[in-house]
Design a protein that fits this description.
By secondary structure, the protein is mainly α. It has helices at residues 10-13, 17-23, 28-38, 43-49, 55-67, 89-92, 95-104, 108-124; strands at 41-42, 71-76, 82-87. Helices cover 58% and strands 11% of the residues.
């Protein structure tokens, strides 16, 4: 029996899908971008830079990024304890991807224009 399209795993049909799941989940990109742009950060510094994230979600995302090997967490047993987060070499390897996306970001104006045209035409139908 030959393998049909319906039988192909999504990651085989689109090999970038697992990458998108890891790198572009809701808060992953802003966290990685911030750590890449500003270097090592304490939790409160990340909170200040990414103002719309809640502390609970930031904690969850940082743990996941650490588990995925994209962020390193350093604990300093001081009084009070200090924890710093830094983008790992694996995470830093995403810098060209982020740069390419930043280069593409002016195209968002074209996306907005296409949406405006589409929506205007849709109202006439």
């Amino acid at each position: 029996m030959t393998e049909t399209t319906a039988e192909i795993a999504p990651e085989q049909a689109c090999p970038i899908a697992p990458v998108v799941d890891v790198v572009f989940s809701r808060w992953t990109t802003p966290i990685l971008w911030t750590l890449n742009e500003f270097g090592r950060q304490r939790f409160v510094e990340l909170e200040r830079r990414i103002t719309t994230i809640t502390p609970k979600v930031l904690t969850q995302r940082l743990r996941r990024l650490e588990r995925d090997g994209l962020v390193t967490r350093t604990y300093y047993p001081e009084v009070p304890p200090r924890v710093e987060y830094e983008i790992s070499p694996l995470g830093r390897s995403l810098a060209p991807l982020f740069a390419a996306l930043a280069d593409w970001s002016p195209k968002l104006a074209e996306v907005e224009e296409a949406r405006r045209i589409y929506d205007a035409e849709g109202k006439r139908r």
